[in-house]
Amino acid sequence: MEISITKGTVDIISVNGSVDALTSPELVKVLNDHIHNGHPNIVVDFEKVEFMSSAGLRAILASVKEARTAGGDFRLAAPQPSIEKVLKMAGFHNIVKIYPTVSEAIASFG
Amino acid sequence: MAETQRQITLPAELEALPLFREHIKNACQDKAGLDAQSIYDVLLAVDEICTNIITHGYAGMDPGSIILNVEVSAQALIVTISDFGHAFEPVEPPTPNANASLEEREAGGLGLFFVFSSVDEINYESSPVGNTTRLIKNL
Amino acid sequence: MQLFFKVKQQPEPVVPNLGRITLSLLEGDPSTPFTIKQINDLPENIKRRVYRNLIPPVLLARFDIDPITWLGTNKEQRVFLSADSSSEKVFISARTSTSEDDEFFALELADNMLNGIELNLLLLNDPASSRYTIDKDEEGNPTMFGTVRRNLKAEAQAKEAGLAPGQIRNSLSASKLVLDQIDTFLATIGQRAYFLEPLTYASAWVFEKRGFAYVRGHKLMTTIHEEFQPGGALHKALDDSSPFRQQSQWDHVRGRAWAIHDGILDVLETNWDKLRMVKQVGKFANVNSFPNAIY
What's the CATH code, domain C23-215+273-280? Predict the structure, then answer.
């Protein structure tokens, strides 16, 4: 799994690869560090995430809580259909806002 | 369609998870009747079961082996996962409360929920010889 | 190949008393497994017939031993069985002469605490090869295959001669034959698997090739492989400081086994202990912790 950060009005954190029990701790760390370094609003670009298990969901849950505690919020952008299905099955669409594109996700921060 | 059976045995550590997924994807390559979603469903179920074995099954021990067997036929995709750790029977958890607020959401139980939602049949057998989980996805 | 397993101190086994094997038990479900103890409780001659299945006939034929009578060409006893009633162990050995020194095969199976079977000992020696006294120290005390004490001089000579740690003679190439026979024997008595604790890295590698998986210690084996690669901690510890820590030992099974026998795993803050392997009858796990290995 590779993570890259694109700076902007809202930073975009792009994840490439698989988010499973092996890689999710690293994702949590990167997201939380970013939130605590003065960026409580983040957009996570999932376009290149081709696999995610419940470990990935736990990572998202943890980071959403961090972002909101820090006074910001979390947007998830461009999940692939299989990943979106996983998110919906667990009811995560009621917890975190999911957008089909990164630009829509950024725009949602107003 | 000819049946394929492929086996891989790896240590029960998290590093094995992507290798197991790769093995299943390779076994599914070029098989007609296997759509991407069905393959994903099986990858997910297997990943959750193996994660449980790795984090709980061999807890307190030098990790032993996980043996993964993939069988692809025209009717079904069957994955058999054998391990020699503590017995950990997958029991269907309650459906996650999709309407619960963020604070109320529990982090646990999701893994097994996905297993039960992703495949059609789950058989679990535990004996002094070891544990075997059999996942069947009808095609 | 001479394969040794630790003869470990087991707690008192708690195999349920399934009772004697009676005709009615035999006429019952043929899948019911029998224990070693139950077989040991049978009359001598029946035991003998059953335990004949522990040694491949072709192995006995190699040394002109009759596979039915167990006698050599001079009509002397060559195969020795120890299977006392009310014991949960069976020990069987074969020699080319009456002398124990000419033993080429020895095997011990035992019931374990979980209604399973344990392979406690398997020796396959080439009686024609030179003998190295690694089994006794300079004062004549037993070394238990070099695990309790060591005879460093004999070990260095054995290593030089191409033996693996724990071996007193070069191996007899019969591990596949013998292990296949054990599978067949266990299937006959209804047992689906057996367990062992490999004495050395070399034995563990052989068992991997013969289809065993790990109950414990698979990760240790892959870590050992990684750390013996150039740049790894075990590779660095091969510093030519003794005959058992030569740099050249990193890339082959026996070399690594000698270094591990010598305690090199201290560098990883662990030791060669607690590994446990399992063989499912008729199945091969295809574990390969040392890809493209040279023995």
Answer: 3.40.630.30
The Cα A30–Cα C223 span in angstroms is 28
What domains appear along chain A, each with residue ranges and CATH number? 2-107 (3.30.750.24)
Chain C hits for B129, CB-CB cut-off 8 Å, are 116, 192-193, 278, 280
Sequence-distant (≥ 6) Cβ neighbours of residue C37 within 8 angstroms = C15, C86, C87, C88, C111
Size of interface B-C (CB pairs under 8 A): 64
Q: Which of A64, A55, A90, A83 is nearest to B102 (CA)?
A: A64
Domain B4-138: which CATH number of 3.40.50.10490, 3.40.50.300, 3.30.565.10, 3.10.450.50: 3.30.565.10
Question: ipTM for the complex?
Answer: 0.92
Q: What is the pLDDT of residues B10-27, one digit of tens each?
A: 999 999 999 999 999 999
Bridge partner residues of B9 (DSSP) = B67
Contacts of B82 in chain C (CB under 8 A): 213
Option in B54, B101, B107 nearest A58 (CB): B107
Across the interface, do B110 and A21 touch by the CB < 8 Å criterion?
no
